[in-house]
Design brief:
Layout (H helix, E strand, L loop, with lengths): L43 E9 L10 E6 L33 E5 L5 E7 L10 E7 L7 E6 L4 H6 L1 H4 L3 H4 L5 E2 L4 E2 L2 E2 L13
Parallel strand pairs: 1-8, 1-9
Antiparallel strand pairs: 1-4, 2-3, 2-5, 5-6, 7-8
């Protein structure tokens, strides 16, 4: 193997390699990415939690993407999620009117994240759920999971995916009702590992 010295004058060292990345901060995440729906809307819910590794340590730099249907179970058709100020070029965030159903947020230093969105409606035979995509260091490929909100036990019991899981594994996909918000922790490995889905 030939080594190339990049430390000499006028040479730039290579970008360090990462398992998913390297990440460049531009628009990942973006301002207001956690606000998919406005505060005060009657169907707005807040979902929050922590992302933890196999040893239970928090991941301070994971990216969480959440997508959900609207309260009627319809797939949103609004494009994008950013809007620019034509005068300054700065980001204004969402327009507060169109529901895109999609948001992205980075975990904080404690591995915590939150998303404010509309309570999704049921689609087909499935109980209402939010789709989640997790990007984090140490992952070769991003992970997919779901967040089911508690409250309709009959719908949860009839959900085709949840019915295939034993009670302990099923519990990793159902958020806990905390009154003002729903708590959904994501465990990448180990005890209490979240159920992740594979799409083909």
């Amino acid at each position: 193997m030939t080594r190339i010295d990049t430390s000499g004058p006028g040479r730039v060292p290579p970008t360090p390699s990462h398992t998913v990345g390297p990440f460049y901060g531009y628009a990942l995440p973006f301002p207001g990415g956690e606000d998919v729906a406005p505060l005060g809307h009657p169907d707005t819910v807040t979902v929050h939690g922590y992302v933890r590794d196999g040893e239970g340590a928090p991941l301070p730099d994971a990216l969480i993407e959440v997508w959900g249907a609207d309260p009627g179970g319809r797939v949103p058709k609004a494009d994008g999620s950013l809007r620019r100020d034509p005068a300054s070029g700065g980001y204004l965030g969402r327009n507060g009117v169109e529901f895109t159903g999609w948001g992205r947020v980075q975990t904080d230093a404690d591995g915590h994240w939150y998303m404010r969105t509309l309570r999704p409606g049921a689609r087909g035979n499935s109980a209402p759920y939010l789709s989640v995509c997790v990007f984090a260091r140490g992952l070769l490929v991003h992970l997919f999971t779901r967040i089911y909100l508690p409250g309709d036990e009959a719908a949860l019991a009839a959900d085709p995916l949840l019915r295939r899981l034993d009670e302990e594994r099923r519990a990793t996909l159902i958020a806990r009702d905390e009154g003002a918000a729903y708590r959904f922790d994501i465990r990448l490995q180990g005890e209490g590992e979240t159920v992740f889905l594979e799409y083909q």
